[in-house]
């Protein structure tokens, strides 16, 4: 080996030793600090020796010594690397242990946080519960006060699990008519006197308490079934000995008297004397929800269809779609008219129809009915107003009695009618609008009261009349109600009814007055109010008054068509039971 090669080799080895020392120092800061002093000295000596060797020739001994030094240095470097690796493994183990402990600590923190949140939630729940309990206690105190008031002033009496509630009102009423009818608070609109009649030249004043009404209702529950009984009476009957001369002793009459069974599933069964299913309701179809105009007069107003009669009714209510349907079989009655063109030989042989109503002809106060009136109705209450459609089927019959030369014969005729009504809030809680109409053989359900017309051969023909009413009732204040209605009933010409060749001459003279004219229509308008002076636990005290204007028109005959006009003013002072 040349001197130059040896010097190069020595320089490379020296550089490798220095590099190895720095590498070991970078791997472990702890090992560097432990061996820092000796390493510096060694590097200094090695540098001095190398510098010296460059300046003088190198012997074999020096080479051997250098090789030994390099081997020793290499061995020491490997030992230092082992120390560094062991230290790294130890530190890695400690790091893993620390990471595991950190993860465990994180989980513990999460558990503590969840436990704290749960505790907070429980505390918040306790606070809410305390507030609710406080509010509930306040509500309980209010309810308890109401219950105490109810105990002191019960709306019903309890008897063996049944609630019994008396009701009704005491009435002091008066009326004034511009055409005298000699009638009480129930005006007979179809019979108001024609202008030529003597009674049309007389006015009429009357004071009465006969519309005083007493009611009694009993309710009881059996499981999920509610049983109700209801009785209602007034004193508008004309019993034997009734007189206004001294005692004014009028009989009471049955207005309503029915029983009802209601099931939670919406089915209802009712039977007894009640408002007919024809009558418009305020909501649904259940009993005691009927909508009748607020007039004082007991016969309401022309155009409004109603009846109170014995019936059996089945009702089904669906809460979801606000639909209610009902079917009723109701007591029947037939009111017929015999026109002037029916021969006397036929009229004298007729039997079977009622004597009530204008121009009728029978010899009994009851009609001989074949079957009940069948009535169906469907209503919907969508949340804004009440709407209904209705239809009825009726059976009429009369008999042409036997003679010496002809056997007797019965004649049966089917009839009926359809109708619709709506009771809509024009302004919620302030104004409501009523609209109702019916068409068909529905005469007896309104003042004109004509169901059938007798033909010249004695058979019957249905009189398809048209009835309509519209009105508004308003509630400007909690104490004041105001209302206005207009109604009309129309009867068409039918065989001899409305006969064009009829002689109406005596309809226009007072002396010898006799009027065969047929009623064509009744037109009516009314307005009035109710004012409540007091309404509270002791009942209700109110006063009302109304004005009614009615025109009766007839079909034109040979000599014109007579007409009648009536003006009625009525007032009422009532005290209602609580």
Can you characterise this structure?
With 578 residues, the protein is of the alpha+beta class. It folds into two domains: 3-109, no CATH class; 153-576, Porin. The chain is built from five helices and 22 strands. Strands 2-4-5-6-7-8-9-12-13-14-15-18-19-20-21-22 form a 16-stranded antiparallel β-barrel. A three-stranded mixed beta sheet has the order 10-16-17, with no helix packed on it. A hairpin with a 4-residue loop joins strand 8 and strand 9 (323-330). The chain is elongated. The termini are far apart. Residues 18-38 and 356-363 have low confidence and may be disordered.
Please, what is the CATH homologous superfamily of the largest domain? Porin
CATH architecture group name of the largest domain: Beta Barrel
Count every beta strand, where a strand is a DSSP E run of 2 or more residues: 22
Question: SSE order in H/E notation?
Answer: HHHHEEEEEEEEEEHEEEEEEEEEEEE
Q: Beta fraction of the residues?
A: 35-45%
CATH topology of the largest domain: Porin
| Class inferred from helices and paired strands | alpha+beta
Compute the number of structural domains: 2
- What's the story with the biggest beta sheet? 16 strands, antiparallel, barrel
Helix content: 25-40%
How many H/I helices? 5
| Physical arrangement of strands within the biggest beta sheet | 2-4-5-6-7-8-9-12-13-14-15-18-19-20-21-22
Separation of termini? Answer: 138 Å
Shape field:
elongated
Compute the gyration radius: what is it?
A: 54 Å
Unreliable stretches covering 5 or more consecutive residues: 18-38, 356-363
Give average pLDDT, whole number. Answer: 84
Q: Quickly name the level 1 CATH class of the largest domain.
A: Mainly Beta
């Amino acid at each position: 080996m040349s001197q130059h090669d040896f010097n190069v080799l020595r320089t490379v080895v020296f550089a490798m030793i220095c590099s190895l020392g720095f590498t070991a120092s970078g791997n472990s800061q702890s090992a560097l600090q432990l061996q820092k002093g000796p390493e510096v000295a060694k590097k200094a000596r090695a540098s001095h020796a190398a510098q010296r060797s460059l300046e003088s020739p190198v012997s074999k001994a020096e080479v051997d010594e250098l090789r030994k030094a390099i081997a020793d240095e290499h061995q020491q470097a490997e030992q230092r690397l082992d120390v560094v690796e062991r230290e790294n493994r130890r530190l890695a183990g400690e790091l893993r242990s620390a990471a595991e402990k950190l993860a465990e600590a994180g989980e513990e923190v999460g558990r503590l946080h969840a436990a704290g949140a749960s505790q907070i939630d429980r505390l918040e729940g306790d606070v809410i519960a305390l507030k609710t309990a406080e509010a509930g206690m306040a509500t309980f105190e209010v309810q308890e006060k109401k219950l105490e008031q109810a105990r002191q002033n019960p709306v019903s009496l309890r008897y063996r699990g049944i609630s019994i509630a008396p009701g009704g009102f005491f009435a002091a009423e008066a009326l004034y008519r511009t055409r005298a009818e000699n009638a009480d608070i129930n005006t007979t609109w179809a019979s108001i006197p024609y202008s030529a009649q003597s009674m049309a030249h007389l006015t009429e004043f009357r004071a009465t308490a006969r519309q005083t009404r007493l009611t009694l209702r009993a309710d009881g529950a059996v499981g999920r079934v509610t049983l109700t009984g209801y009785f209602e009476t007034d004193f508008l009957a004309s019993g034997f000995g009734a007189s206004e001369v001294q005692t004014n002793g009028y009989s009471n009459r049955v207005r309503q008297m029915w029983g009802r069974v209601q099931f939670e599933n919406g089915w209802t069964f009712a039977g007894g004397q009640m408002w007919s299913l024809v009558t418009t309701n305020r909501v649904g179809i259940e009993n005691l929800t009927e909508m009748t105009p607020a007039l004082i007069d007991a016969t309401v107003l022309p155009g409004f269809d109603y009846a109170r009669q014995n019936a059996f009714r089945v009702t089904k209510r669906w809460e979801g779609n606000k639909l209610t349907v009902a079917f009723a079989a109701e007591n029947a009655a037939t009111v017929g008219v015999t026109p002037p063109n029916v021969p006397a030989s036929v009229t004298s042989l007729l039997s079977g129809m009622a004597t009530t109503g204008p121009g009728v002809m029978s010899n009994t106060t009851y009609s001989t009915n074949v079957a009940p009136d069948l009535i169906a109705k469907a209503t919907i209450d969508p949340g804004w107003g009440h709407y209904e459609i209705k239809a009825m089927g009726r059976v009429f019959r009369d008999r042409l009695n036997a003679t010496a030369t002809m056997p007797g014969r019965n004649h049966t005729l089917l009839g009926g009618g359809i109708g619709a009504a709506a009771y809509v809030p024009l302004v919620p809680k302030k104004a409501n609008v009523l609209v109702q109409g019916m068409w068909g053989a529905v005469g007896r359900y309104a003042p004109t009261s004509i169901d059938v017309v007798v033909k010249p051969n004695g058979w019957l023909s249905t009189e398809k009349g048209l009835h309509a009413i519209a009105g508004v009732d308003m509630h400007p204040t909690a104490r004041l109600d105001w209302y206005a209605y207009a109604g009309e009933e129309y009867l068409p010409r039918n065989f001899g009814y409305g006969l064009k060749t009829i002689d109406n001459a005596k309809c226009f003279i007072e002396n010898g007055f006799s009027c065969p004219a047929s009623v064509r229509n009744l037109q009516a308008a009314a307005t009035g109010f109710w004012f409540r002076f007091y309404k509270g636990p002791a009942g209700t005290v109110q006063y009302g008054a109304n004005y009614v204007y009615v025109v009766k028109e007839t079909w034109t005959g040979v000599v014109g068509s007579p007409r009648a006009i009536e003006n009625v003013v009525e007032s009422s002072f009532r005290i209602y039971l609580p």
